[in-house]
Amino acid sequence: MRVYNFSAGPTMLPLEVLQEAGTNIEDYNGSGMSVMEMSHRSKWYEPIHNECIALVRELMEVPDNYEVLLVQGGASQQFAAVPLNLLTTGKADYIVTGNFAKKAYEEATKYGDIKLVATSEPEKYTYIPKTTRADFREDASYVHITENNTIFGSKYHTLPDTGNIPLVADLSSCIMSEYTDVSKYGLIYAGAQKNLAPAGLTMVIVRKDLIGHEMDICPTMLKYSTQAGKNNSLYNTPPCWCIYVMMLNLRYLKKIGGVKEMEKINKEKAAMLYDFIDNSSFWTNPVAVEDRSMMNVPFRSPNEELDALFIKGAEAEGLVTLKGHRLAGGMRASIYNAMPVEGVKKLISYMAQFEKEHK
Amino acid sequence: MRVYNFSAGPTMLPLEVLQEAGTNIEDYNGSGMSVMEMSHRSKWYEPIHNECIALVRELMEVPDNYEVLLVQGGASQQFAAVPLNLLTTGKADYIVTGNFAKKAYEEATKYGDIKLVATSEPEKYTYIPKTTRADFREDASYVHITENNTIFGSKYHTLPDTGNIPLVADLSSCIMSEYTDVSKYGLIYAGAQKNLAPAGLTMVIVRKDLIGHEMDICPTMLKYSTQAGKNNSLYNTPPCWCIYVMMLNLRYLKKIGGVKEMEKINKEKAAMLYDFIDNSSFWTNPVAVEDRSMMNVPFRSPNEELDALFIKGAEAEGLVTLKGHRLAGGMRASIYNAMPVEGVKKLISYMAQFEKEHK
Q1: Contacts of A182 (CB under 8 A, 6+ apart)
Q2: How many CB atoms lie within 10 A of CB B307?
Q3: pLDDT tens digits for chain A (359 residues)?
Q4: What span, in angstroms and rounded, lies between the C-alpha atoms of A104 and A81?
Q5: Angstrom distance (rounded) from CA A148 to CA B291
Q6: Contact (CB<8Å) A242/B13
Q7: Is A220 on the interface with B (CB under 8 A)?
């Protein structure tokens, strides 16, 4: 029996996508081999690769002056790749809104003069700090934000005004969950294991004029120029299977109506869950209402014993991986694109029942 | 119909491994989810991860003073990671025996004083240069070799004598194809997409005393210390599906008798093919007999037109991806662990038929 998996990532994929991947696993479309066995330079694999990138461009309406790159190493590797590629003035400004934002900031300090413009750490990352254009240094190479905070459940709903300074954003846990105006960013990166694909793949969308200015010490595999242009993310062997499943997943997203339709469904799911929590005197969510994430919803019962009891009881109902991150405690329901509305309804129903039994 | 795939990588996996992966693709062992959907910190995934690493240790008889790390980025990323982690004296010595060895050498020159001790490039990489202990600098941090040359089909059958200087070797295209005495190396790395797993995974086996001396500029994700010890290659999200398939593949290798049994089969396959080529006045292999690879066998007919005709004809027989690398031309049969003896026999049979028709 399939469960509803509320993991923060890796997490659910649409059943239809898994089924198609399974059907083809010994012989992809008459090639006589699995996608896991194909040369990345073969006539069988290349159409998969190119369709994946074309679907990203189509679904996110990526402007022509941006490259879509498929790389490895996760967002954590981009924490170094971003400064190594973009720090042309030696200065960059960071806003810290969570654990991963802080890691990105700390990694960047190895490579230049990095300003911590604002942080919500003293308030346990329960809100997004407000900034104005004047907070950023005029000669900063870029401003870095983590758009959605996976662990603490906050999100930028209005991007900071950085004027002409390129905005760099980690969209790992909100990519393709809602409409994104790519032209507002210098660079977007995202680990694939939440809304895109199985773990082991990272997507970078970067404005072309920002490519090619990397530091001498930048490893070849971390340079955007290595995978851009005619190399087409095939400089070395890519994670072909992850790219294949991502392609199937994007085909599915297109079929159901694309990112804007997905956004409607995601809004509905998040509204249901937050409304239920806000109308309860038992369950609480600590995040400022205007900054709440649509993807990651942390919540707590009145005490830790009840939290533990709830997590155990939920698992028996097929509602799994609800334990909060060790830095946050309590519970967290990650309701990414592939979580059906029914999964959220079932969670709310179990939360209501648990509340009745333990109030 | 399944084909015999002679790709240099990604390449064949045992059918049994693909079948098991397919059977579990929607619901792994009653977890209610695919391995592609599992949190890497879940009770379902962790046993897979730990079994994979334990099987590497068992099958390769890895001594206790070595770490086995599962990372991302391919061998190409290790070309930078090796000097960034190991170049404690600022000096290292490289032997260049092929295209990837040259890339490793060039990348290292960005980070220190790198000596090109020997190269077979002027002879189109058709042999392994002989070296003695005196060729290496006493204060070199390490000596780097590419043990098997995937493109040109040569292999170190006797390791260079480096005295007390740690030997670092790229084993991407020969890992677990034959017995390896791990204690002779300071560090071994290998992209997984030839003998281990689907593309997107890289294995590093490193002597513990060499970990933790990285340069300040080393990106966190390229430090061996980031994934070593208690982090257990789970510092960030690993490529879980690739690790799962690698675990299945290693279980299979263990079942058929382990690396020593695999070595016997590989020797048989390679001997059959080389004997056939050497006994033919039509087919040729350019590599010095004592340096020939057991995994990658380049060969040519008398001219390029016949090469093209052969590749096309072979494909119609279900013998695919035989085209040589663009730098080498001609044909190349990569006969990794998962290529059955029958595949090599069928190739030889078609080569004999083609020779008869076109001599």
Answers
A1: A60, A61, A62, A63, A66, A188, A205
A2: 19
A3: 899 999 999 999 999 999 999 999 999 999 999 999 999 999 999 999 999 999 999 999 999 999 999 999 999 999 999 999 999 999 999 999 999 999 999 999 999 999 999 999 999 999 999 999 999 999 999 999 999 999 999 999 999 999 999 999 999 999 999 999 999 999 999 999 999 999 999 999 999 999 999 999 999 999 999 999 999 999 999 999 999 999 999 999 999 999 999 999 999 999 999 999 999 999 999 999 999 999 999 999 999 999 999 999 999 999 999 999 988 999 999 999 999 999 999 999 999 999 999 98
A4: 10
A5: 54
A6: no
A7: yes
Q: Do B200 and A241 touch (CB under 8 A)?
A: yes
User: CA B174, CA B28: separation in Å to the nearest integer?
Assistant: 31
Is residue B219 less than 8 Å (CB to CB) from chain A? yes
- In this prediction the ipTM stands at 0.98
- What percent of chain B lies above the pLDDT cut of 90? 99
**Location of structure tokens 């977007």:** A188
> DSSP characters for B240-258?
HHHHHHHHHHHHHHHHTTH
In whole angstroms, what is the distance from residue A170 CA to residue A97 CA? Answer: 12
Strand partners, B80: none
Name the A residues in 315-354 with CB < 8 Å from any B CB.
318, 320-321
φ, ψ dihedrals at A140, nearest 5°: -70, 140
What is the per-residue pLDDT for A269? 98
H or E element at residue A203: strand A202-207
How far apart, in whole angstroms, are the C-alpha atoms of residue B160 and residue A148? Answer: 52
Chain A interface disruption, residue of B237, B242, B317, B334, most A CBs within 10 A:
B237
List of E strands, chain B: 4-5, 66-71, 91-96, 113-119, 143-146, 148-149, 154-155, 167-170, 187-191, 202-207, 296-299, 319-320, 331-334
Could you give the domains of chain A? 4-12+258-358 (3.90.1150.10), 15-255 (3.40.640.10)
Compute CA distances B313 → A64, A138, A247, B319, B350, whole Å: 42, 64, 32, 9, 9
B157 SS3 class:
coil
**Residues, chain A:** 359
Q: Is the per-residue pLDDT at B173 higher than 90? A: yes
- Backbone dihedral angles phi then psi of residue B16, each to the nearest 5 degrees: -55, -35
Closest in B13, B34, B74 to A13, CB measured: B34
CA dist A179 → A261, A264, A271, B332 (Å): 9, 10, 17, 47
